[in-house]
Write a structure and sequence with these properties.
This protein is mainly alpha-helical. The chain has 21 helices and 8 strands. It has a two-stranded antiparallel ribbon. It is elongated and about 105 Å long.
Length: about 525
Amino acid sequence: MENALAPESGKTVIRKARLASQALFLLLFLWLFLQTESKGADQLGYPVKFFLDADPLLVLTAILSSRSFLPSMLLAGAVALATVFMGRFFCGWVCPLGTLHNLTGSVVRKRRRTVPKGSFRLKYLLLVFLLASSAFTLQITGIFDPLSLLIRSLSLSVYPAFQYGVTSFLDALSRWPVPGLAPAADWLLDILHKGVLSLRQPLFNQGFLLGLLFLGILALNWVERRYWCRYLCPLGALLGILSRRSLLSRSVSEGCDSCGACVPGCEGGCFPQSPDKWRKAECYLCGNCDDACPKNVVSFGFGRNPAAQALDLGRRRVIAAAAAGVAAVPLLRIGPTRAGQADPRLIRPPGSLEEREFLRRCVKCGECMKVCITGGLQPALTEAAPEGIWSPVLVPRVGYCEYRCTLCGQVCPTGAIRSLKPAEKPDVKIGLAMIDPGRCLPWAHAVPCIVCEEVCPTPKKAVLLEEVVVKDRDGRPVTVKQPRVDLDRCIGCGICENRCPVLGKPAIYVLSVGESRSRENQLLL
C-alpha cells in the first residue's frame, strides 16, 4: 500500500487533522442547532437539518418504513458512498456524538474493563433488528440513531437546563448589592440572548428522563472509551459494513512484533496489535495507532486492501435479531391508535401526514419541538402508544400553534410533517375547540369573559359570542356573552385553551377531532 503521508509527518499530522475536523464539525453542529429557532421570520435561512439529512441509517429506514423516497437520500447516499471508498471517516472525523464521547472519555482516567469478548457484535444485531422492523413499516430507528438521539437530548433536556442555569445565575448576580454588577449581568444576558439563548425559557415534558438517558450514555465511557460507538451505535454498524472493502485503510509492515503499544489508544477496539485479527469494520481512522507505534510500522493510505478479520455475527444471532424486529411490529402497535380510539389529545403539528404514515416517517429527532415558537410541541409518552414515544404532540396549555408559523415542517428531515406554504397554513386544521359549560365563566357563573373570542386568530372568528341574559347568585339579571365554536372556522390552534383564564382544567380545550389529515377523525361523519 502506498502511504498517503510521509513517516515523519504522518505521526502527528493525522491526529491533529482529525482533532481539527472533529472540532469543526462539532461547532457546525452546535451552530446549526442554535439556528433551529425563529429569528422573527417564517424562514430559518440555514440548513439546520443538515446532519440528519446526511444520516444514511435514518434515510434508509425511513425509505423502508414509508415505502417512498426522500429528497435527502442524495446527501445520505453521498456519505454512504464516501464510506465505501474512505472507511468509517464519519465516526472518527465527523460525528458530533462521537466527538462528545471522545471528550468525555479523555476526562475519565480509570475504567472498568468488564465488557465481554465479542460485544462489538451487539450494534450489528441492533442494526438487523431495526432494518427488519423498518421493512415491516415500524420506524423506531430514531430512538437509537446517534444524531437523532443527540439532537433530541440537547433540544429537550440539555439546552433547556443550560438556559435555566445561565439565566438563574445571572439573575442572582444582578440581585447582589455590588455597584455595576447588575448592569454587567443584564448586558451579558442580552448578549447571550442574541446568539446562544432563546427568547423564552424552553420547557419540555420528560426533560429529566431524556437528560438522564443522555448522561447515562456518556457515562458508559467510564466502562470503556467510546462504549456507545463500539458496542451500541447502529449507524456505526451500517458504516462498518460499508467500509469493509474501503480503499483508504490501515496497513502494517512486517516489522510489527505485536507489542500492544497501539491498543490503549485505539478508539474502535479493532484489535490493532494483531494484523491477522484486525477488525477493519471497527476502525475509525483515528491514527492513534500510528502515533503510538514505537517502530513506525503503521501507515494509512490508499491502495490494495489488506486482509481483515471476517465479520462473523453467527447465523442464529442474525435470524433472532431479525425475528425480534418483525415481532416488535405487532407488540408496539397493540395500543389504540385508530381514529375514535386514540387519545383525543393526540394533536399533531400542522402539515403532519395521516397518523399511520406519520409514525412510519417520524424519527423522534425533536427538531420540530426545538423550533416551535411557543413551546407547545412536546414529546409524546403514552398518547400515541409505544410506537409513537417521543414523537411531537401539541399541548395547548403549554403553548399554542402560531397562526402563520410553518417552521416545524421546514425542519422535519423525513417529511413526516409537510413543509407548508404560508398560504396553505390557514386552511389546515389540527383539531377542534370544545367548550365546557360547567367551567366556562359566562355559562356557569354569570361572569363576563370574552378572552377566547378576542385571541382567536382566524380572519372570521371561530369563536362566536351570543348575548344572553342570565341571573347571578342574587337573582339579578346580568347580560353576558356566551362563547360557541364554529365547526367550519376552527383550526384547533389551541390559543383559546392556552389563554383561558380558568385555572386547572380550562373551560375551552382542543381535541384532535376534525383534523384535516384524517377523514375518519371527524366530529360529524
